[in-house]
Fold this sequence. Notes:
The structure is a single chain. The chain has helices at about 25-40, 75-90, 115-120, 140-145, and strands at about 15-20, 45, 45-50, 50-55, 60-65, 100-105, 110-115, 130-135, 150. By secondary structure, it is α+β, with helices and mostly antiparallel strands. The chain has two domains: about 5-90; about 100-160, no CATH class. A three-stranded antiparallel sheet has the order 1-5-4, covered by helices on one side. Strands 2-3 form a two-stranded antiparallel sheet. The protein is globular. This is ABC transporter ATPase. It comes from Flavobacterium silvaticum.
Amino acid sequence: MYVPFDTLPDEGRIWIYQSNRKFSDEEVAEIASSIEAFLENWAAHGTALEASYEIQYNRFIIIGINQETQAATGCSIDDSVRFIQHLEKKYNVDLLDKMNVTFRNGEFIAHKSLADFKKMAKEKAVSGNTIVFNNLVNSVGEYREFWEVPATESWHSRFF
């Protein structure tokens, strides 16, 4: 069952999918509609999941659930991955590749392979103060507080 994102508790579980390219505004509208339809029917063992989403910067899809009402199960998580794979095919993007880094480069958001980001750090093209998107956060509270952070405050710190 779809609910507004701001109603999810801090303990809610989230999954963050970053696109290897920016979505157009038209694509965002289509994707939002598809996600809402998916979430409206998303269930675990026949029980509706209280779920929501955000699309940030036309690049990130954040899906969250309220685990207090019903926790996601292996099958329901598999359903969500299949849904994301469907979006990948439809929009010709990578959403499941975790070997990439997205970060702020001035007013722009850049997306690089992990190897390229590592090289940029070595060449001092990015620093520990570079704002990165820490897509490894697991809860809604962590997402709200620790998703956009200086690289030294996330797993990216190993490159500096």
